[in-house]
Design brief:
42% helix, Rossmann fold
Length: 149
């Protein structure tokens, strides 16, 4: 199974290397080309115990990174979205990074012929997926059936 991890910050990077340790092919995605380059070269870009060792092992197992959401989605079975959701002034979580990520994923899914699972790992308030995030995804892949569980 091939997994894509969208967002290679502290949580996404750890998820990517852990999935690679579990024998999955992993494609990391980030909007920052310098992070993508560091991951592809096996250079740690976050500080986490043993991350340098686990990153090196994950690279040997086939972990790669790209800035292309489309390439990652088209070449994977599952996409985990791990983008920042900082608190808004009113205490809610900002969906500012999630909406564009889902729009990019939706456009890629429109070109895909096989089943693809999308998992939102980022922290959101109850109702966010149903009333905001899923409609955003669906709007960008209108010919696809979106299942929600």
């Amino acid at each position: 199974m091939t997994i894509s991890v969208m967002g290679l910050g502290k949580l996404g990077a750890c998820l990517a290397v852990t999935a690679a340790e579990s024998e999955h092919k992993v494609i990391g995605v980030d909007i920052d080309p310098s992070i993508v380059e560091k991951v592809n070269r096996g250079i740690p870009h976050i500080r986490e115990p043993q991350y340098d060792i686990k990153l090196a092992s994950a690279i040997k197992r086939g972990l790669s990174a790209t800035t292309s959401v489309e390439a990652a989605v088209l070449n994977s079975d599952i996409t985990f979205i791990v983008v920042p959701t900082p608190s808004d002034p009113d205490g809610a979580f900002s969906l500012g990074a999630l909406r564009p990520a889902l729009a990019d994923i939706g456009r890629a899914l429109e070109k895909k012929t096989s089943y693809h699972l999308v998992v939102v790992v980022s922290t959101v308030l109850p109702g966010s997926c149903r009333y905001s995030l899923i409609p955003t995804l669906a709007a960008h892949c209108p010919s696809k059936s979106i299942g929600v569980d």
